[in-house]
Specification:
Blueprint (H helix, E strand, L loop, with lengths): L4 E4 L5 H13 L4 E4 L14 E4 L11 H8 L9 E4 L6 H23 L11 H7 L24 H4 L3 H20 L3 H22 L1
Parallel strand pairs: 1-2, 3-4
């Protein structure tokens, strides 16, 4: 069928998750299979179809609240569609459908009152590349020209850190980055990744 697919789950490394989501936004592949990770946080306007397998398997990931959160992953696309595969209709499924319909009615009434036509806000390729530049974890960081001072290097506190302090700062930044990725805040994770690369560059210069 020619459909390109990638998957994401808890064992996929933090920065690999950032890169995978960037590739999804860029259209490099078509389908992202999520294992217990896409219930919340995947807030991307490029997502137009969400498919929930085994929707009738009642449990933490298939209760009403979780189903509503998963359904919401398609909310930012004006052609958003959700398909739930199941052998029977559960109370959680019906509750999620009813709540989604209720929210849709409220949103439509608001749009009609204010003459709003829903449109998907899609960023161009360059904007996505800039926003998620830190996903280039497998590439060598770009060289820095001597006449360019990064915001981090210009920080008076960071500028006077010794080697051990810089290493500690790098470790703390990595922990924050991994926490942001675990929370599925991939934009913040990307920003922290860039910051960590800059700190590591400063560590190398201290060693010289």
């Amino acid at each position: 069928m020619g459909v390109k697919i990638k998957y994401i789950h808890s064992e996929v490394a933090t920065l690999d998750r950032v890169e995978i989501l960037r590739e999804l936004r860029l259209g490099i592949f078509d389908v992202l299979v999520g294992v217990n990770l896409l219930r919340e946080g995947l807030d991307l306007p490029e997502v137009s179809l969400v498919v929930i397998m085994d929707a009738d398997k009642e449990g933490f990931l298939r209760n009403e609240r979780s189903l509503i959160q998963t359904i919401g992953r398609a909310a930012r696309n004006d052609h958003g569609l959700v398909i739930m595969y199941a052998d029977k209709m559960t109370g959680s499924m019906q509750g999620a459908i009813n709540e989604t319909a209720r929210r849709r009615i409220i949103q439509k009434a608001f749009n009609d009152k204010h003459n709003i036509t829903p449109q998907t806000i899609l960023k161009d390729r360059e904007a996505i590349m800039i926003q998620t530049s830190a996903a280039d974890s497998k590439k060598e960081p770009k060289s820095y020209q001597n006449d360019i001072v990064s915001p981090l290097a210009a920080d008076p506190v960071v500028a006077y850190m010794d080697l051990n302090q810089l290493k500690k700062f790098s470790l703390e930044t990595r922990k924050k980055m991994e926490k942001a990725a675990q929370d599925l805040d991939f934009v913040e994770a990307a920003r922290l990744r860039d910051e960590m690369l800059e700190i590591d560059r400063m560590v190398k210069e201290e060693k010289v």
